[in-house]
Amino acid sequence: MTTRYAKIVLTLMLAAFAALVAFNNLTDYGSNFAFVKHVLSMDTTFPGNTAMYRAITTPWLWHGAYGLIIAGEALTAVLLARGALAMWRARLGTGRQFDAAKQVAIVGFTAGLLVWFFGFMVIGGEWFLMWQSHQWNGQEAAFKFYMALLGVLIFLNQAEADRD
């Protein structure tokens, strides 16, 4: 039972994290909007870089991208919270029942990885060359977030001892 409770609590903690990130981005919109604007504009990348054709300098696209990020964070929070609730309800069931209850949380962890790994590391970091910016490089923070998600996802996917 200890392992089941750990899986539920860790999932809830990451749901709370994603919810707070989305809440902060909504209630202090301008702070992280500046980050999105500069990353997409590529205005602090190395001078003369030949990938500047990738830059997005249209304000409504900055807002759209930021909206997608916030929506992804909120979706992650909701799915993780629902997954934790499903696991809580199945905590006294068989291993098969508890494993089946993990499915929504697994989707939630995947949504979080889409935001913080694919969105920030792949798209922001490599496509928009965020790594070249000393001021607007969010890769270290994103790494911490997606590694926490990945670590719990791996733990969560361990089959229950009484699975058979």
UniProtKB/TrEMBL annotation:
InterPro entries: DUF2165_transmembrane
Coiled-coil positions: none
Keyword terms: Membrane, Signal, Transmembrane, Transmembrane helix
Pfam families: DUF2165
Coiled coil is among the record's keywords: no
Positions of transmembrane segments: 65-85, 106-129, 141-159
Protein's name in the database: DUF2165 domain-containing protein
